[in-house]
């Protein structure tokens, strides 16, 4: 299965330079990297990234993350993927821009491509 991470472009560029993604400040504060499933990612964008521009959407192969990935209850009891380790860039399937629309929502790419 594929899971997704929304991140500011600048943070992702730092990860590319370092060879791994250690998370955004909220991830570091919580002790794990927050991800969303395909069914959750648009709501995540609306709730946590409304109006933000210069974002990227990364698609991650969850099978490549092994035992450090856990599904845990979050919003309304839904299970969200959390990674208790740095994200190796080798697990990234693709990274695409996530532009903001004029109304503050985001224009998502095709998640299957």
Automatic annotation (TrEMBL):
SUPFAM superfamilies: ADP-ribosylation. Pfam families: DUF952. InterPro entries: DUF952 (IPR009297). PANTHER family: BLR1139 PROTEIN, DUF952 DOMAIN-CONTAINING PROTEIN. This is Dihydroorotate dehydrogenase. It comes from Tianweitania populi. The lineage of its organism: Bacteria, Pseudomonadati, Pseudomonadota, Alphaproteobacteria, Hyphomicrobiales.
